Amino acid sequence: MTPNDKLFDVIIVGAGHAGCEAANATAKMGFKTLLLTIDFNNIAFMPCNPSLGGPAKANLVREVDALGGLMGRVADLAHLQFRELNTHKGPAVRALRAQMDKRRYQEIMQHFLEKEKLISLRQGEVVSLKRTGEYWRVIMSTGVQYETTAVILATGTFLRGLVHIGLHSFPSGPLGQHPANALSEFFQAEGLCFRRFKTGTPARVRKRSLNFSAMIEQPGDHLPYGFSYWIPWQEREQVSCWLTYTNASTHQIIRDNLDRAALFSGAITGVGPRYCPSIESKLINFPQKERHQVFIEPEARYTDEMYVSGASTSLDEEIQDIFLRTIPGLENVEIVRPGYAIEYDVIPSNLLTPSLALKDWPGVFFAGQINGSSGYEEAAAQGIMAGINAGLYLKGEEPFILRRDEAYIGVLIDDLVTKDTLEPYRIMTSRAEFRLSLRQENANHRLTDYGYKYGLISEEEYELFQAEKNRIQQAFDFLNHHHLSPDTPQAEALFKEKGVTVKKKTAFRELLRRPEISYSDFADPETHGLKQREIEVIENAIKYQGYLEREKKMADKLRKMEMKRIPPDFDYNQVPNLSTEAKEKLTNLRPVTLGQASRISGVSPADISAILIWLSRR
Amino acid sequence: MIDNDTISAISTAQGAGGIGIVRVSGKDAFKIGEKILRHPSGKPIQTWPERRVRLGIVVQTGQRVLDEVVFFTFKGPKSYTGEDILEIQGHGGMENLQLILAATLEAGARLAEPGEFTKRAFLNGRLDLAQAEAVIDLINAQTELAHRVAVNQLSGGLSQILHEIEGKLFKILVPIEAALDYPEEDIPPLEKEEALNIIRSVKAQIRTLIDQAERGRILQETATVVLAGRPNVGKSSLLNTLLNEERAIVTPIPGTTRDFVTETIDLQGLPLRIVDTAGLREIDDPIEKEGVNRSWELIKKADLILFIIDSTLGLSVEDRDFIKEIYQSVHRRKLLFVLNKSDLPAKINPTEVNSIYPDEKILSISALTREGIEELKQTIRSELMGEDFSPEHPILVTRLRHKKALEKTKELLAQVEDGLKSGISEDLIAFDLRDAIDSMGEITGRSVNEDIINAIFSQFCVGK
Ligand SMILES: Nc1nc2c(ncn2[C@@H]2O[C@H](COP(=O)(O)OP(=O)(O)OP(=O)(O)O)[C@@H](O)[C@H]2O)c(=O)[nH]1
Ligand SMILES: [Mg+2]
Question: Which of A325, A511, B143, B267 is the most buried (most CB within 10 A)?
Fold first, then answer.
């Protein structure tokens, strides 16, 4: 008999951004959760750049928040700076981006987790899993064993982590942490074939050694909101970032020393991301570019450590020192930690279901960077979904799968488990077919009902959301039922201020469709109790109505295909008329729905029809 | 029921003779029937009894008669697709069926995707085990396979042009997408004028493709040229001359040809079906009368009518009446006047005919001496294919489906153009551009989402 303190409903391996969200989710759903971390000092640690958000990523943060996750709240409480990007490029791509105080972020996240009675946080390295009856036995490197029904593996880049700095390489987790090799070996022995990915970071430098007068200051914006829907927004004293550029002599030094870069010496076999290229890759791929941006970003409020964003490198430590000094403002730079490249194990996408469960391993889920994604936001999004799905597994209920037209989370996970991802995956707005609908300001209207249904959103929070919905409904009523007639003082004022003429009696709502008109032209939003973000919800819904309807039509089409499920044991070889390529890919990836099958490259509409018809024989 | 729009397609194989079926499925199937079908008398159809074969005529909006047809209806959910179905059996020529199809589309149906009927049948739970077997084969023989063959053919011409167009549109789209996803990188802003120029040139390119579509159809399906005219004007003689063999019987007796004679010739790469018909006249003889009726049928369906006039007799009252009737009854009139027997003294010359029918082309030939035959051949060719046609520049758009997709692309590009001019935000411009590129993808079967992302990273140095 396993003693009660060793018995859990769910055990989460890894307390990074995926693991923390997963633990919060399972605990909120009422399950006794053990969150294991290989190093207790590194809960919710940001080993790469100290920022969250940006296009598509901000949407993920808001979506996680809308479902009841933690990332947005923690970010709001731990920010050093907030900016809003793409403000002139349309509402669909408007995006918050925030610099984080890394240390405070960890502290606050840890606090949120420790507050949860159902979460136990514990340091330790998992070495293997063992199926015993209906349970999993989780075996630690110290010999301790736990028993659980569900397991979520959120081990990030730790599995067989291999760090490269120049020609030196050594087994390591990110930033010198202990790697997890035993667990990787265990899975390999069980027949799971991992693939190798690579990512990298730049050097960290000492603030006192920099000359900011040679750089361009990048101050924050004063915004009426942060990420979270649930905690009152309070701007903290903002800290600036700094912009500077590489130049010809920087490039010369790097080129001359490419043989001392791990990336080009042949030491690295993993595949690196295109969207997070090292400075040496940038020079090789874009030789015509005369300079590259370098952002100097603070790592925390009370530290001298600064992150040299844009100069990620696997060059020899000595060369890093030399090339950084050619950059204006960095002439006397002192490196506190060198940049490095890290290789790690990634689970092939065809082994996972859309609920992030490992096929043929009941109750085992994977989330985060180990699934081939990159980025804190991507990890958090998978974490909360794996958490909810582990909870639903425990309850014996249907999994929770978000569609591509509902959330960036849906796009992210569908891509991860469907596409043969050959490099670390980053979410981008370009990946979303329904970009105009998946805006950052309306994530709660898209997802909070789910969060409430699964128990991640509390009653108080749900009341806040209902109140917002009521305010918005009232605003719509106001706009629908009030009209502007020609030759009234209000119409004249509108003409004077916006150059808009009203020819016949027109509803406010109709007028609001014009780009130059805003809600405040009809009423002071504050007297209607509307917050800035709520005004955006209203205005975007009206101004982009035509486009949103088009997206909805496209989405409906997709949904019909999505509804048609393919049995997990479906044998594609029995379907005649299926192209060989399609047979191979379908057998390999085992899509869950016809819609998913149709997105696999190499599977044609004709193939889909053939499967559809064959399915009906059953 | 899963789909709520109404779809329509030709559901018999291309090139199959006899009859062909246009099938309409969906909640508006009977409404569409009401719009395009009439009793043979021309009266509107009020009732739609199920599963009963009925005679009717198909009219286009504007009430022009397209074809005499047999039609029947099936009420959902007890139908093949599980939805209301209207099936129209028309005369087998692809051209004819395409017109009926076009009429259903005009009346509100959407062109079905390949296999969509079966898809619906399946989704509505209407496909049983035995049917499923049969349908797989059917689909592959007809729509799917035909579609694939088309795509393969495209690997030459059309896909190349579409690829080129896609490349041009990417030039606008990729910088927009890159800037949307990487606002902090120094990506040069969109050059509006340059973008507008690209859009305009692409639109012109697509317009040319669409214009060619009609010719493409003629090329693919073999155009029908009907030799018509009063008895004894030399129709059979002209057929023989064009064929270079004595195929049809020629005598000085009016009414020699009783039934029509069809032969296929190759006019420098352009396949043509030449039909010699019974001479047109009012007659009591039942056999010849039936022949004349058939002549009229053929005239109505011709891609090109050669109306032959005996120049030694001049333009008779009957000639004029027949021409008038052709004008009235033939919906897509392509007419060429041929004055035959130019080797004999003429009572009428082209200029005189021209003064009566100023819109028509008139040629003077002799079927006997071959005078003017080369010119006639050239004119037939240019009437059907346009002046600039040559087999080295093959027609690219041969399918109604492709034409539709291109028309949609063009429409969306017009929206992009408007958007650029009025300065709407770039996320919306990107939306329309993507939609336009996607609708070209309906032809090439390619989806470009991944390509856009690849292009962003190959063209811009982004990411930190
Ligand atoms: N001189 C001369 N005679 C011609 C010419 N073309 C046809 N004929 C003669 O005209 C007569 C009728 O020719 P057909 O070709 O049988 O005429 P058709 O129009 O087929 O007549 P039906 O079959 O009765 O409708 C024959 O005696 C031909 O030899 C021509 O170009 N020159
Ligand atoms: Mg004859």
Answer: B143
